[in-house]
Amino acid sequence: MTPETTTRDERDPQPLAAYLRELRWALAALPEADRDEIVAEARSHLLDRRDSGLSIEAAIAALGSPRDYAAPFLEAYRQSSALAHGRLRELLPVLFEKVAGSARAAGTALLLLLLWAPALAIAGTAIVKLSHPEIAGLWLGPHEFFIGTVDDPGSAHELLGFWIFPLAVVGLVVTWLLTRKLSRSAVRRLGPSR
Questions:
Q1: What is the sign of the dihedral through the CA atoms of 139, 140, 146 and 150?
Q2: Which of 186, 194, 176 lies closest to 96 in space, CA to CA?
Q3: What is the mean pLDDT of each run of 10 residues along the chain (194 residues)?
Q4: CA pair distance 98, 96, nearest whole angstrom
Q5: What are phi and psi of 65, to 5 degrees?
Q6: 3-state SS, residue 139
């Protein structure tokens, strides 16, 4: 028996056939074999509930909407796919989707923001230094120590000079690598919600 025949049968009542069709659509992001298995399992569950005396409509209502039923499977697939590929463009959306419901995800997101703030400040200052080298850099004065630009270069001493460029590159690369490592670790530990 092929997966297609286990997920669809002409003898299925119309409400069941409609539900399974919508479930298949809701699971469209999954590989076909996984989608077939989930739909077959839902069909079997609904038919078992009907055989135990429940109407097919009541069994469907108890299972929930096709989108709600599909949601945990889609989330688990996105998470496992993100972990398998290890790319930030897949890891970060999974992590940020969980921020509202998880202190661990929120803490990781905050840590990532704290990592990126100085890296972007250094990179931005390096970009400004290309066109205005006299006002951009790492400044030390009697009451100040900061990276950025100054109105009066005589009020503080610039410490880095053109070393800001390699520092900016190293800062961005290290921050990107840390972001990737922290995101992977957080997504792995979070697990799919149920």
A1: negative
A2: 186
A3: 48 84 93 93 91 89 91 87 83 80 83 94 95 92 89 88 95 95 85 56
A4: 5
A5: -65, 155
A6: strand
Pairing state of beta strands 157-158 and 136-141? antiparallel
Q: In whole angstroms, what is the distance from residue 127 CA to residue 55 CA?
A: 68
Three-state secondary structure call for residue 148:
strand
CA distance 89 to 15: 39
The residue to which tokens 């919600």 are assigned: 193
Which DSSP letter does residue 133 get? Answer: T
**Closest of 139, 137, 145, 184 to residue 161, by C-alpha:** 137
Prediction pTM value:
0.60
**138: which strand partners?**
147
Q: What is the token pair recorded at 37?
A: 């298995």
Rounded CA separation 145/170 (Å):
21
Query: Per-residue pLDDT tens for 112-156?
Result: 999 999 999 999 999 999 999 999 999 998 888 999 998 888 888
Which residues is 145 bridged to in the sheet? 140
Rounded to an integer, what distance in angstroms lies between the CA atom of residue 182 and that of residue 119?
16
State in Å, rounded, how far the first CA of the chain is from the last one. Answer: 31
H or E element that contains 158: strand 157-158
